[in-house]
Amino acid sequence: MTGPSNPIENPTPHPALKPPSKPRGLTRDQMAWRVAKDIPGGSYVNLGIGMPELVALHLPQGKEGDNRQIVFHSENGILGMGPPPPQGEEDFDLISAGKKPATVIPGSAFFDSADSFAMIRGGHIDITVLGAFQVSESGDLANWTTGGVPAVGGAMDLAQGARQVFVITNHTTK
Hints:
Blueprint: H1 28-37, E1 44-47, E2 71-74, E3 78-81, E4 104-110, H2 113-121, E5 127-130, E6 134-135, E7 141-142, H3 155-161, E8 164-167
Parallel strand pairs: 1-2, 1-5, 5-8
Antiparallel strand pairs: 2-3, 3-4, 6-7
């Protein structure tokens, strides 16, 4: 059976990633692959900004040997977001919540922010993958800062409204 390679056994980082100077534990790419393995077919998934966006690189989107159907939601009003466009083919009128060029799959839908957050708050997003600055031993999540950004954004709505929350972050000691 052919399918996505296992980056934990074959650690070849995605070209967009810059490896840390002293890798410890799993790489960002390996963590993203591991999260992607746990997302079941038929899920409506919202990926946070930053490292969570790497999870999409390890999900089916037509990869041979993986027939899971996963639909991506973006809180700026897209249901059915596709993979990043090839360099040089970007449409800067079509962007993700992370302000990066995006594509859409056939059958996707566009809607306003109020409807997007109604989906989130109404429990219609199966899984969200969020980045974090800190996670306590009891699972409390700290994933935003006020440095130049006036508000939390959608992360707290996603943490509360999604049926399942994955947190992907580097582990460091104090």
